[in-house]
């Protein structure tokens, strides 16, 4: 048998009708069209479909707290129990996060069912619970998805005629956690994209104090704060996650930290904390955890040239005046 480099004629791959492939000790043939389609699926398609047999289409009321961490929260701690901000509970099958720490009451409040809405629990320093959207899919056994989907990967999911976009915030052999638009009651299809389809914007606002700022103030393009304007310079995308932290926090862990809501073309995007936005945590050692699945599907799209903003809602005594130096991270997925 002649060696390939000794063959007398050459041709381009595009002109070839058949090509030779070596597999398991044998030389086999493949058509040009089959090779192109195979390479397209591996390297060219922006969105790659996930086999529906590999996941349950109905989201689960579990909590994703990290890249590989998932839990099934217990119920509300009652009888004047101290609760820290970020605590997650489950009541009547719905997840709730403590967006402000405090002490629970002796009897339970009436918990809201709509994601993003809050209720106070206890007095005089109540816990504020915020209803969470379901954001976890259960995976089938031996699904192998953790080998192709990693935390930070872009996701797309459909239900009926609607298409949504999100971000993988956690995955293990059993579950997939998703931030972005609220998951529908049941998915028709799930796709994952490529790392280059994720865009992150970071902001730093040198805020010595919030005390003199009114509710609704845009912290970007603000001459009194000396902050720059921000404009979206890519193709169509979707805001799927936002995180915040302060270098100096509000004076107490049981008072409200200032809330920040991302703006796209002047419209607030998150329904978290009754639409006021996501608060930085009451410690300067970590980023916010709230707001997962809170992006409004009719507000989170961004198009070329749209203005990006950060809307302030003050909190605590003194209008949040002791919170200082905001860092913000906004994560987008391209269409």
The rough form would be described as globular
Largest sheet: 6 strands, antiparallel
Helix content range: under 10%
Number of helices: 1
State the domain count.
4
Radius of gyration, in Å, reads 24 Å
Distance between the termini: 50 Å
Q: Which segments are poorly predicted (pLDDT under 50) over 5 or more consecutive residues?
A: none
What structural class do helix, strand and pairing data support? mainly beta
Secondary structure tally: strands = 24
The side-by-side strand order for the widest beta sheet comes to: 3-16-13-14-15-12
**Strand percent estimate:** 35-45%
Give a brief description.
This protein has 335 residues and is mostly beta strands. It has one helix and 24 strands. A hairpin with a 5-residue loop joins strand 4 and strand 5 (70-71).
Keywords:
single chain; 335 residues; mainly beta; Thrombin, subunit H; four-stranded antiparallel β-sheet; 1 helix; 36% strand; globular
Report on the architecture of this protein:
- The protein has 335 residues and is mainly β.
- The chain folds into four domains: 41 residues, no CATH class; 72 residues, Thrombin, subunit H (Beta Barrel), CATH 2.40.10; 68 residues, no CATH class; 138 residues.
- It has one helix and 24 strands.
- Strands 3-16-13-14-15-12 form a six-stranded antiparallel sheet, with no helix packed on it.
- A hairpin with a 2-residue loop joins β13 and β14.
- The longest helix is centred in the first third of the chain and has 13 residues.
- The radius of gyration is 24 Å and the shape is globular.
